[in-house]
Amino acid sequence: MATPMPVPPMPAGPLGAPPLTRLRSPAGLGLATAVLLGVAVAADLFACVADLGEMNVAQDLMGGAAGADVVHRADRADTLYGSAGIAQGVTLVATMVVYLCWLWRVRVNAEAFQPYGHQLKRGWVIGGWFCPIVNLWFPRRVVLDSWTASFPPGARVRRAPVNAWWTLWILGLLLSRPAATRFGDADTPAQLASAARLMLVSDGLDAAAGILAVVVVLHLSRMQRHRLLAAPAFG
Hints:
The chain has helices at 27-62, 68-113, 124-130, 138-150, 160-185, 189-230. The protein is mainly alpha-helical. Helix 1 (27-62) packs antiparallel against helix 2 (68-113), helix 2 packs across helix 4 and helix 5 (160-185) runs antiparallel to helix 6. Mean pLDDT is 88; it is low at 1-19.
């Protein structure tokens, strides 16, 4: 009896074949994420106003201003600054929860569109945001791979929106920590003005990154929705 010829194994991609999954449109989650990102941008702009208030009071003190009016303005600026920080924290948590749900869904869809086009395993979709050091580039890699995989076959891939969003986000993040430290350690009006100025730049970068994040979320959701509608078998 002849021995059957062995069947050579099929070549596998870097992460292996993804499990078969019933895909769903990310449009609803994408819209919710975009709305919450818009609220987060509003909180960042509120923080910019608070930063300007702190900076103006500090500059007045540097100029020799004194009296009850300056004390009242300083108290009001501090209250506004604290309220802005709370607003930013609350909106960040709420936005991150919905954003990660959206990102998970678009990653699952993207694996079906391009099974071997992802450099990181699916667990990094969430873990990449919370693991120190790698959170400086893993989230961008996850989004960029999903973005690239979701373009129509043969279409020219434009990565500029993702890269611009991530660049502004990282710059704002890297500036926020020294700005907060400098603000907490400020003992003189000059130090307070310098800290408020740095925080203003950080909050402005966060707001700009948030606007670009809305663009990325809506465009990626739209691309995937169109591909799913064009291939009902995926749904």
